[in-house]
Write a structure and sequence with these properties.
168 residues; alpha+beta; seven-stranded antiparallel β-sheet
């Protein structure tokens, strides 16, 4: 992924560069369902570490769910020079780093999609957004390569023997 801080923040839905101690919060409450979703991007005191998280708070939590549930958390830091990268990702408090190809950029897309829902006055369907953005059927999605791993055998005589019309 490796982007400038400004590019990373834009990917997360923040329109300005955060300084030390600064945060960008979002929140929406659905009174009828008794659910509040809050999201936040924050910079640490030294300005060299960024965290983003999404929480769901339930007036009456579903069976087996705590009243406050952290559904997503990520941490980004400078990689080299002025380029930043996402180094940690937890979804439902489980480490998801390297679980899927391109997880760094995909988690930013999920976060931004949640922010868009909050800004439109709706509670995001986090499971649906995960399904939409964390697809494993993409090329290298399941971190498996294709093919047999062997190079094709092509004899030079095959390439030069055009009279027979065989070619490759």
């Amino acid at each position: 992924m490796r982007e400038t801080l400004q590019e990373l923040l834009e990917d997360l839905g923040v329109s300005y560069i955060l300084g030390p101690y600064q945060t960008q919060p979002w929140s929406h409450m659905d009174v009828d369902k008794g659910i509040t979703c809050s999201a936040e991007v924050r910079m640490n005191p030294e300005g060299n570490e960024l965290e983003a998280e999404i929480q769901m708070m339930y007036d009456t939590p579903p069976e087996g769910t705590p009243p406050v549930e952290q559904v997503m958390w990520l941490r980004a830091m400078p990689h080299k020079g002025n380029k930043w990268d996402v180094f940690n990702l937890k979804i439902y408090n489980q480490d998801k780093k390297n679980d899927i190809y391109g997880w760094e950029s995909k988690c930013c897309k999920v976060f931004h999609a949640c922010i868009n829902k909050l800004n439109s006055g709706a509670i995001p369907d986090f499971e649906e957004l995960l399904k939409e953005h964390f697809k494993e059927d993409e090329r290298f999605g399941g971190r498996k390569g294709g093919g047999s791993g062997k190079s094709p055998k092509i004899r030079p005589a095959q390439l030069l023997d055009m009279k027979k019309g065989s070619g490759f």
